[in-house]
Amino acid sequence: MTSSLFKQRRKFLIRLAKTLHQCGTPAYQLEAHLIKISDALELGGSFLISPTAITCIFWPKGDRENQEQSYVTRMQPGDLDLGLLARTDELVEELCTGQRDLDDALLRLEEITHKPHPYPQWMIFIAFGLASAAFSMLMGTSWADVITSCLLGFGIYGLVFWAEKSQRILAALEPLAALGAAFFASAMSFIEPSINMPLVVLASIIVFIPGLALTVGLSELAARDLVSGTARVMDAIMVLFKLYFGAFLGFAIAKVAWGSVAQQEALPLPAWSGWVAVLVLSFCLMVMFKIRLKDAPWGVAAGFLAHGTGIIASAFFGIALGTFFAALLLGIYANLYARWLKAPAAIVLLQGIVILVPGSKLYMGLNTVIAGQEILHIEQIGSQSFLILMSLVAGLIFANIFVDPRRSL
Q1: What is the pTM of this model?
Q2: Taking the CA of residue 348 as centre, how many other CA atoms within 13 Å lie in the half-sphere pointing to its CB?
Q3: Which among 38, 201, 322, 325 is most buried, taking Cβ atoms within 10 Å?
Q4: Are 23 and 80 contacting, i.e. CB atoms less than 8 angstroms apart?
Q5: Given CA atoms 135, 129, 168, 248 in this order, what sign does their dihedral have?
Q6: pLDDT tens-digit series, residues 359-396
Q7: For residues 257 and 275, what is the distance between their CA atoms, to the nearest angstrom?
Q8: What is the DSSP letter of 55?
Q9: CA–CA gap between residue 291 and residue 84 (Å, rounded)
């Protein structure tokens, strides 16, 4: 292998690692995928990935001792971008099958990495509000809570949009969002006293609740990727603490500013509203995760599969084991999708997991411990949340035993 060819292939693999890291790919999957692609490009490779760093070592096959080269870079934790993940996977497939040469692949990779958000700002704005409303509906509260959550969700997007323009706001985005939601929820309770204020705040900031990050972190720990898994879990816990402190401070300021109002009973939502919530939330996730339109129906189906299986299995086995069976079926569905459509399983898997993750219950448990108040009456909410997290991870592991996805992503 010539020196120029080695450098070109090395450049592509580094760029690929950065792009997939930017998509929020779990470390153990990213490392395995990079080893597979480097082997296809006739390079030796060793990789160490964490949420904040990429370390790579490359060498021409059979000549590691004389030509080994390393690369280390600092990275910001990636955000979920399933559209970019799908396009990158297609590009790698085209390269490995000879449909593109390396020069063309490098240009295409640069192009898709800097591709703007596929959905307009007004659609993202609507998705933030409807996602908050859908979460309230999943909790089965009241129409007043649903409407209030939606309005606050719109306000939260305004803060997110501001944070994109200001580093100072971005650094304190989570506690500021929770503080603002709590402050304005208290004001709205004077107009509608039946509002469940803590639940409305939780629904309005649900896009920040790190339930999915906790699940990914525990999956990395289960795969014995200890550095990345520990870092991701600790980051998720800190985000949860920042959100709760912001809400706690917001309620305290509102109480000093205009006092408090006694909460009144409200009529709960009908049972069918949960299915509507899954549909609405699935489409909101399509926008937030930047999923391509052609992949969206598969993700919506994953959401309904997770929700329906969870309800049926929980009736027989309880909520923790019910979540295990829901995650098992969801994982099998995602692996079949990966095999048949030759696409990353995460495109549909993550949309279903969002329906199941108990990050919101961890927030509720935190409120019960610190404030001594229940947001919703759920027995043993803290231990239940951790059991659900373990069931999720176990269900996905068993799914890989039953159906091999035959793909590294």
Answers
A1: 0.86
A2: 30
A3: 201
A4: yes
A5: negative
A6: 455 555 545 544 445 544 445 455 567 777 888 889 98
A7: 39
A8: E
A9: 8
